Amino acid sequence: MIKAAVFDMDGLMIDSEPFWQQAQLEIFPKVGVELTLQDTIDTTGIRIDQIVEIYYRKSPWNDLSCEEVCDLILARVIELVKEHKPMMPGLFHAMETCQQQGLKIALASSSPIVLIQAALEALELKDVFEAVLSAEGLPYGKPHPEVYLNAANALDVSPLDCVALEDSFTGLLAAKAAQMKTIVIPEHSQREQPRFVIADRQLTSLEQITPELLQSL
Predict the structure, then answer these.
(1) Which of 20, 114, 129, 145 shows its CA 20 to 30 Å from the CA of 122?
(2) What's the pLDDT tens digit per position in 69-106?
(3) pTM to 2 decimal places
(4) CA atoms lying within 13 Å on the CB side of residue 149
């Protein structure tokens, strides 16, 4: 029986993926890395320091450290989140439905904690979650399952009794590796990809979360 729901953040709770894409397209050319919008889409769900390291290994730069490039990208994303407050449709509905079912609620994100806190403040969700976890300081981000395992531990619930809500395939892999039940809500252009079949349920919106769906997991 499901006892807890663990929410991803970027792309699931807030429509921040376009901001990550915009920030990368603005910052990477400053260190001589040319990339396309598709390049940024292909790395959705991967921790930003890992993305920076990937590009640095392919095309090393001299002017800034990898950490400084990460900081510039992150600062731009935070600026855009605070400005636009991009809450995904059905977020409050999904959380309320989980709470009405008596589920504990946590957040488990690959994003740095400073962005998580900025987003929760912007959306007035600071006191909603019983646990807020970032993969920022972990050896590996998603698709490694550690951030999800940490979330289950923080809630004092077995991962087997948790459902993870995700939007990206990278995050879905992390949740499945943690042995959680999974609900995936891919971005519109990704919905027809057959790889999402590994999720327990695939939806088009958080508005489709119902007591019956949660009870069926």
Answers:
(1) 145
(2) 999 999 999 999 989 888 999 999 999 999 999 999 99
(3) 0.85
(4) 14
DSSP string, 118-166: HHHHHTT-TTT-SEEEESTTSS--TTSSHHHHHHHHHHT--GGGEEEEE
pLDDT at residue 166 in the model: 98
The widest CA-to-CA distance across the chain, in whole angstroms, is 55
Could you give the residue numbers annotated as active site?
8, 10
CATH code matching the domain that covers 17-84, chosen among 3.90.180.10, 3.40.50.12780, 1.10.150.240, 2.60.40.1930: 1.10.150.240
Phi, psi dihedrals of residue 121, rounded to the nearest 5°: -70, -45
Tokens in use for 205? 């919106």
Task: Annotate 120-143 with b (16+ C-beta within 10 A) or e (fewer).
Answer: bebbebeebbebbbbbbeeeebbb
> Closest Cα to residue 132, out of 143, 11, 121, 140?
121
Percent of the chain with pLDDT over 70: 100
Contact 154, 131 (CB under 8 A): yes
Place of tokens 């390291």: 53
Residue that is written with structure tokens 């919106």 in the block: 205
Average model confidence (pLDDT) across the chain: 94
Instruction: Calculate the CA 191 to chain-centre distance.
Output: 17
